[in-house]
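ok posting inputs for the iron/sulfur cluster job
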Amino acid sequence: MGNKEIIKKYSAGKLDVVWKPTKCIHAGECVKTLPQVYNPKEKPWIKPENATHEEIMTQISKCPSGALSYILNETNNKEIK
Ligand code: SF4
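and the output
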């Protein structure tokens, strides 16, 4: 469909964090909320294993741009916004 949206995935056990760099408005909410997970100076810049799944899911729901989402592998790879 000519849609070249870039999608990056960062896995930690049952949870995959999905990040769409083209949507990110760099508001820094994620970095402020969970600095141990989101560190733009490091590679990979998202380390989902450094927080609980609950902490990550709560934080992702606050991402203002929708750049972040997650996939819970135990729910048949269903993507939740
Ligand atoms: S909270 Fe969302 S929009 Fe803000 S920097 Fe993180 S990913 Fe980008």
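notes: The chain is about 15% helix and 20% strand. Residues 24-30, 63-65, 67-68 surround iron/sulfur cluster (CB under 6 Å).
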